[in-house]
Amino acid sequence: MVRATTAAVGAFLSTLLFSASVSAYDRVNGEGFASRSPVLATQGMAATSHPLATQVALDILKKGGSAVDAAIAANAAQGLMEPTGNGIGGDLFAIVWSAKDKKLHGLNASGRSPKSLPFNYFADNNLEKIPSHGPLPVSVPGAVDGWFELHEKFGKLPMQELLAPTIRYANEGFPVTQLVAYYWNRSVPKLEQFPGFQETYMPGGKAPQEGDLFRNPRLGDTLQKIADGGRDAFYKGDIAREIDRYMKANGGFLSYEDLAGHTSDWVEPVSTNYRGYDVWELPPNGQGIAALQILNILEAYDLKKLGRTSPEYIHLFAEAKKLAFEDRAKYYADPDFNQLPVQELISKSYAEKRRALIDPNKAAKRYEAGTVALRHGDTIYLTTADKDGNMVSLIQSNYRGMGSGMTPGDLGFILQDRGEMFSLQEGHFNQYAPGKRPFHTIIPAFVTKDDKPWLSFGVMGGATQPQMHAQIVINMLDFGMNVQEAGDAPRILHSGSSQPTDELMEDGGYLSLEDGFPMETRRQLVQMGHQIRFESGPYGGYQAIQKTENGVYHGASESRKDGQAAGY
């Protein structure tokens, strides 16, 4: 073992002072950390991070709506009720299992940068990186187009019926939940300076508190226009013209032409096989294949024998993540602007080469990206399933909490700041360019077994996502957990890797471990050269629906969020 430095031991001991004791749930069976049992149903299921959105989805399913209809309705509700994580000013990705044709369909509904904003603008204005808020990181919002693409292909009920519950809640009001209130209040100091934000999101001059009733009739009006006029009402009608006017008046570049020219892309999901199960992600510009790379590297180890809380397993996981994230920093970008080596990156042979770089006893300070032919984001993830066997894995986000802060006129929503995720390094795959999709953190996931649906799942939260995707799969397949326990289990989070936005890892980054890992494990990880930090809250938000061989849906919801899984 590597001898711990005095500084490392001191930093480790300081984290222990802040660590709470392991939570104990008084349950008669299951894992001791489990917060609840999975929810079981046969006719339909929804799992979201907001209870009212889950109920909206169930109502749609009971009316004969498809899983896609329920997902759209729930996403609309969350855009109103959870503006801290998503909204129609942001982007969307989805994976859909179609029972009719027995295959997965992938949708990339992310938007592109303004065509009128040139690369040299940033250097000419002495900007070394794209700002996190304000007009410059705003890209075309793709969510609404994503809804209509999904609806045209898999929808049953009219869009007016899908948006009606949210329009009603927007006009009549809804109670703000605990975690949403926390993040809402945390966002206010950063965003209250931007035009339109206070008028929409600070009634009475302040953010709402837990239990306050909040109304957003402006968003209700906007959603009514979309329900009546379709996607063109957003991208080519009065909404687009208002966004154009607002951006021009406030130093922005996003234009009517950018909105009118937007399109989503249907893409083929990609997969790797792990322990006999096919794990599916969408290809870049998202980061989903990082989860596949992590799983490929770890597949060669007997993780079950090592044990979930062992320092050996956590060390291997952290090193696999570091390796995958070096490739993520170099290669993940808009495929329309680059030839991306996706199949090489997720191949077993490539994983074998990368695995050989891991020292089983020592944490690496630096890895290079392989040679082949995040920041904390705020997001929502939801999943739905219907009586016909269709399942939807959907993720949607404004990025960085409530987004850019730019809140156009009386439209009732904030524009995203996803453009911050471009690189300003010339020649980088993810280099900023007009009309280009930025690197994206939000990723839906799916698992099939013998070409049948097994698990629709996702974990919201910036760079946390691929790490937690891999951990959910490992928890279920290596450690034998059920779908709820897999999400409740204490999580491992490595931070500080190299990024697609030019940051380089030189010091090995650091590990954050949730309560539930033994002190002896933490001590040994420090002795192996890992930095350990205490952090509260960055471990992501999980939702999942598993389908068993007898056709029963097993729903799970994140105990760290406000939401719930429910079925009928």
UniProtKB/TrEMBL annotation:
This enzyme consists of two polypeptide chains, which are synthesized in precursor form from a single polypeptide. The active site is at residue 379. Pathway: Sulfur metabolism; glutathione metabolism. Belongs to the gamma-glutamyltransferase family. It comes from the Bacteria. Its EC number is 2.3.2.2, 3.4.19.13. Pfam families: G_glu_transpept (PF01019). One of its GO terms (biological process) is glutathione biosynthetic process. GO terms for molecular function: glutathione hydrolase activity; leukotriene C4 gamma-glutamyl transferase activity. The lineage of its organism: Bacteria, Pseudomonadati, Pseudomonadota, Gammaproteobacteria, Cellvibrionales. PANTHER family: GAMMA-GLUTAMYLTRANSPEPTIDASE (AFU_ORTHOLOGUE AFUA_4G13580). L-glutamate binds at residue 462. This is Glutathione hydrolase proenzyme. InterPro entries: GGT-like_enzyme, GGT_lsub, GGT_peptidase, GGT_ssub_C, Ntn_hydrolases_N. Cleaved by autocatalysis into a large and a small subunit. Coiled coil: none annotated. Residues 1-24 form the signal peptide. Gene3D superfamilies: 1.10.246.130, 3.60.20.40. Keywords: Acyltransferase, Glutathione biosynthesis, Hydrolase, Signal, Transferase, Zymogen. It comes from Microbulbifer agarilyticus. It catalyses: an S-substituted glutathione + H2O = an S-substituted L-cysteinylglycine + L-glutamate; glutathione + H2O = L-cysteinylglycine + L-glutamate; an N-terminal (5-L-glutamyl)-[peptide] + an alpha-amino acid = 5-L-glutamyl amino acid + an N-terminal L-alpha-aminoacyl-[peptide].
